[in-house]
Predict the structure.
Amino acid sequence: MKTAIFYYSQSGQAHNVALRISVPMDTVVFKEIVPKEKYPFPWSSDIFYDTFPETRLGMPPSGIEPIDFSDIADADMVIVVGQSWFLSPSLPLQSFFADAQVRSYLNGRPVVFVNACRNMWLMTSRKIKEYLADIGARFVGHIVLQDETPNLISVITIIRWLVYGKKEPTRLLPPAGIADKDIYNATRFGEIIERTATEGNLNELQDRLLEAGAIHYKPSVLYVEKVGHRMFGLWAKFIRKKGGFRDPRRLRRIKLFNIYLMTVLFVVSPFGVLFFYLTYPLHHVGRDKQIDVKVS
Ligand SMILES: Cc1cc2nc3c(=O)[nH]c(=O)nc-3n(C[C@H](O)[C@H](O)[C@H](O)COP(=O)(O)O)c2cc1C
């Protein structure tokens, strides 16, 4: 079996996930997704927040560098490994799925999407489902690798990492990002994908992946994500009224969004989680989970 793995990664985290998944696979060809617009790592605070409106509104500012498809024309399986930005697919992933050649390549093919993110992946997965349905690809598997430390801790460690480039632990904080052991153990997903595809049982792939722990479903975090996603939509439109991507005229609104986001992350979201548990019987957690972890 031949697998094409497309990936985008700034720090190397998503790339490492892709490498571990590929270990048990027979023949693998890696294709890096290279956006024409470059995103810095570590990020400056202003550029980080200025990237928000277009990410949330699905307006990537550039396309991607051309991909050579000649050695993967005969691939049996496609895996796309990327990440969430601002509760949406990252801009490079958005550019990837908008690219005409990518779309024609993916049409009719089975696709597994792997999200290597902090812990808010739900709205990204909905968007990926939309892209793949629109392209006419077959979404057969969804894997989420996330930071398993408590939400508030991972907010602190990810800011330290993304803005100051510090991933290592401190006396009080764990290292940022997905735990090394979780990345290491991602090989089990590669084994399941390879075996299930070789047997011709792709209809069963997502159930098998879920059984192996492909998605750790945390309903309170996803509740906060859903509310945040709606608010983000309003903020993104509010900022865009002042100008487009990197327009300095919108800097004041970007700074206001920065304050809003910090307040939400550190002050509001703990109450959101508490509210979620206080009103637990009113949520349809079981039913939502069934829908959210499905690939169709
Ligand atoms: C601009 C930006 C926004 C992000 N927003 C989210 C998010 O909404 N949800 C989430 O789980 N992770 C978020 N992350 C973390 C990424 O999903 C990812 O884990 C991290 O950037 C490392 O990815 P890499 O492999 O590209 O280095 C964000 C990262 C960046 C750079």
The longest helix spans residues 251-278. Residues 9-11, 13-14, 48, 51, 83-87, 116-121, 162 surround flavin mononucleotide (CB under 6 Å).
